[in-house]
Amino acid sequence: MKRFIQGEHRGQSTLLPESLDDYVSDTNLVRVVDVFVDELNLAKLGFDGVIPAETGRPAYHPAILLKIYIYGYLNRIQSSRRLEREAQRNVELMWLTGRLMPDFKTIANFRKDNSKGIRGVCRQFVVLCQQLGLFEENLIAIDGSKFKAVNNRDRNFTSAKLKRRMEEIESSINRYLTALDAADRKVPTASELDATRLEEKIAKLKTQMKELLVIEVQLNESPDKQVSLTDPDARSMKTRGNGIIGYNVQTAVDTQHHLIVAHEVTNAGSDRDQLSSMAKQAREAMASETLSVVADRGYFKGEEILACHNAGITAYVPKPMTSSAKAEGRFNKDAFVYDPTKNVYVCPAGEALIWRFSSVEKGMNMHCYWSSRCQSCALKPQCTPSTERRVRRWEHEAVLEEMQRRMNHAPDMMRVRKRTVEHPFGTFKQWMGSTHFLTRKLVGVSAEMSLNVLAYNMKRVMKIIGTEGLLKAMAT
């Protein structure tokens, strides 16, 4: 092997540094983890085991296990078994933990039992970002993304899926019974093996049917008529593909530095009810009196936009294009102009649609307008196939109209949303790979997501102000 760089012989004696501290540079991210965790009040955040028991075997301090997890998520090592191995061979982790090597069960139980505390740690880092003045623009983008749960698709049941599965089992049982009758008519010695095999299959299908009947009872008792066996909180959700069994993760990201200000894990398949709650969480985290939020069409809901308006939060949400009239080539509602001084709508033909009555629809107070001159209007074929064109107006429609005017004056707002909030989700899914959440139930998944968010924010801040700047900020 001449003309190549040669390594040392394995039997060669080597003088290594005397202490682990010599292996860790002054700007190594493990120093950030160490200082950050040491500055936390873990008891106040709700961690178990901060005060040691007076009897029994001594336990690991929660700070040690928290440092292991933060280091793991910073380095895309989420598995407790992999973290156990890393603690035994990784010099940085040895430095961080003082050569402590917890087993994987201890590491996994810490994440499972301290969900509230882990979420609090994530919020504490956001508070640190706020104190560093990283949230100056007071503009955030909100979005949601679906993440797979540990629950397999075959272990999730809806009414339609359960009914279809029962019909398949009944059909299979009938088919096997027919085959069993045919086997009985054959020569006994030739049919005994077939009959035994068919009887075993029928017995197995009957057992499955009994299990499905138990699931049917659970399904009828479930509020959303859905049951997941492996992860009880996981739900079937629509995606652009075939859909997944998982969770809907919501994030609010600041547009200046792309830091995640607030996040929430839900099992609601739709984003329509998440706007105001996420906006309020973000404003509280940023400690700001004024806040503007931008979201996509999936968040458009009158009640949510009104809640933001009442809370003093300025919303930018485009209206969904779902008008059946426009799809059929007729005038949609936007072609009718409302005159607030006269409380009338003016149609494209210049006629006034006056108020007729009010009604309550889906909990919303709606006003109905129409004109008595529709029958003689030359534009009627382009307007409505009915006797007259009726326009409904929500009692708080002015709030939606005001938001639409803001949207018209800020044409770049949706591009700002896209380049701000979609990147973190792509980062998370790249870190996780093609796998799913490792924990079960909403509490455990929330803790797992909080660790991802904390790792993401730490990396962003270190990129913005540098490792030394972050260490200095935490020390003060």
UniProtKB/TrEMBL annotation:
It comes from Pseudomonas lini. Signal peptide: none annotated. Residues 159-215 form a coiled coil. This is IS1182 family transposase. GO terms for molecular function: DNA binding; transposase activity. Keywords: Coiled coil. Residues 19-112 form the Transposase InsH N-terminal domain. Pfam families: DDE_Tnp_1 (PF01609), DUF772 (PF05598). GO terms for biological process: DNA transposition. The keyword Coiled coil applies. InterPro entries: IS1182_transpos, Transposase_11, Transposase_InsH_N. Residues 233-458 form the Transposase IS4-like domain. It comes from the Bacteria.
